Amino acid sequence: MKPTLLILAAGMGSRYGGLKQIENMGPSGETLMDYSIYDAIRSGFGKVTFIIREDFESDFKAIFNNKRYNFAIEVEYANQAIDKIPDGYSYNPDRMKPWGSGHALMMVADLIHEPFAVINSDDYYGFESFQIISDFLSNCDPEADNYCMAGFRINNTLSELGGVSRAVCSMNEAHELISIFECHQIIKDNDEIIGYDESGKKTVIDEQAIVSMNLWGFTPGYMKHSEKLLRDFLEKYSMDLKTEFHIPFVIGKLIENNRIKVQVKETPSRWFGVTWPKDRAYVMECLLKKVQNGEYPQNLWNV
Q1: Does 170 fall in a domain?
Q2: Number of alpha carbons in the 13 Å side-chain half-sphere of residue 274
């Protein structure tokens, strides 16, 4: 059975100022998601599921339905909404912020019966990254709690436009993930990479450090683990207006409790993505260069 690709596309785009998920970035009007799906198809994925929001569902489907790649891969949709939480829990009616990437995955818990990968809609990961994850998922035991993560060298994820936040990974000798910690405002300052930890303390990061860019490979059992941790999360934070339930939090808890193993699969790909409006020009330039270098056709889907 071919693995499925889940794309987290329900973000509000508040920092970007619009729906960057559906912005034209490629030379023929492609979105960043188009390049991810193109790479997923040629690396062996059999289905793509978009996790979106109901308020832009019609606009989203107008772009992606029957127009691009339905001929090449099965396509499904699921909606993430604040009120979609387990029975028995309530939430603050003033909350507007989504619950986060971990909650988004729970929107497809009943649809997933095969190994699957997860990506962000506004990131470029590179073909090699998808091939690495596809190879793992295609050969794993779907009943086991053995997962994987694409590990990027931090130098391949820095932005020329300012500081970035990254999830820095610690591994053992078997390249299994031990822990993840968030570091913010990371920049390259002369010969050093510096950032600030969660407490605001300045820290120097090894230039060989591996970071997660939210490209994960899971087996279906992940959903049951995540649902239990989501219930624990809601016990504490259901009335909070901003606290979010993210995938790295789930992974960290499961590793801490010795419930799972996560293989860190290093990728040679260079990441780029869209957070702020000024990022768009840089991303468009990067994609154009890849087309000119022959990595992608001028028009991905010939539409």
Answers
A1: no
A2: 30
56: CATH: 3.90.550.10
CA distance 142 to 135: 13
In-domain check, residue 45: yes
- Give the domain extent around 78: 4-147+213-239+265-292
Rg value, the chain, Cα: 19
Q: What are phi and psi of 8, to 5 degrees?
A: -80, 100
- Structural domains counted in the chain: 1
Do the domain assignments include residue 157?
no
Q: What is the pTM of this model?
A: 0.92
Distance CA 110, CA 112 (A): 6
The one-letter amino acid at 86: P
pLDDT tens-digit map of 162-219:
788 898 999 999 999 999 888 889 998 888 999 998 888 998 999 889 999 999 999 9
